Predict the 3D structure of the following.
Amino acid sequence: EKALYSVIEKIQNEGVTGNEMKVAQVGARAGSFMRMGTALGKANALTQNAVYYKDPARVNNLLERMQAVTSSDIKRVAKKYFNKSNRVVIITEPADDGGFGGLNP
């Protein structure tokens, strides 16, 4: 938990590196291509953009919007949303039964 808070604090103070941005953008772009590769993925994207933004055509400029995100944007959003008053921590521990929830495998 402390290690995670340390990373969040570093992002809030320093932003992310150019390489970290590139890796994140490549991953986001790949995920978008995978989702849009199916009829269901396309339908979900169109529906979400229609419902949340009242603009189903917004899906057409997703890649440009992803590429426009900067390290400063990441830093600003991390400061706004990743703070102590906006945090829930859940600690889970395995059950005494070996983690099978009472089932005998």
The chain has a mean pLDDT of 90. The chain is about 60% helix and 0% strand.
